[in-house]
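An instance as discussed:

___
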Amino acid sequence: MLDVRTRGDEAVAEWSKRFDATTSAKPERAVAYGDIPTAAVLAAAASVRAWHAAQRPVDLMMEVSPGVTLERRWTPLRSVGIYVPKGLVSSLIMTAVVAQEAGVERIVVCTPPSGAAAVAQAAALLGIDEVWAIGGAQAIAAMAYGTQSIAAVDKIVGPGGGAVNTAKLLVSRDVAIDLPAGPSEIVVVADESVSDLLIQQEIAAQMEHGPDSKGYVVRVGDDLEATLAEVEGYAAEHVALLGERAESLAGRIRNAGAVFVGPYSPVPAGDYATGGNHVLPTGGWSKSTGGLGLESFMKTVTVQRVTKEGLELLAPVIEALADLEGMPAHKATARRE
């Protein structure tokens, strides 16, 4: 992190040579080429756009007391950096399309050189032109701090492996991030009648993400409450519910990035096609945060308006609390001459 922050392009190039066997002396844009399933990319993007457009938060204005009006206004971020793991066009869709829908002005994509061509092809289809063939922690540092070639962004989002998530947490002292998203996790909750084949299909799909992926199976026994407690304890990225008793828990699970209900709701349907977002909390973070949504690319601004009469009504409260906290300058503002 410090090396990239200090030396910029030169450091990014050196770390990329070490980890990705690149040869350039500076970061390079990804070049789009090769065949990608255009119709599938556009269909997935349309579903993601539709679902996330419906999430748009509502601005609020309220007269809290006579002469005191508060406004809470949602506004898009100016710039975001998106990390796309090697060749994962679906992760580009899950992030870039939502950023576009939120109204983000500048979208920067970094993705490992191997697989960058397909990501760049998909980005072009979506109308995104700043795609860099940079992977790993050096990509996160470049987006966080900027280099001679890459301007810093206001927030970094996207899934990744251990090194990428560690890098995101490190730079979060200086730039906002979404959440630690990766390595992949799944808990399959199944009634005794559910076949092992169905369970193993779900486990195998998540194991494809890499050797550090985690999969757990919870068989539903006589004590449904104990089953729920076990599932909640994992606080996993994905929870798949198979069988009538398992499915009955769908509305009660709090600690999960996404819950998939029934034999016809495989997790990869959410990874690719339903429109739900697959950038989800891992490592127990689902206890306190949810997955990526439209609001992840927006922030609020609060506007406060107080009339002369309103301030007169507020003055006793301002003065009393300012006295309590030993803030005489605060107290002085309560009475305007």
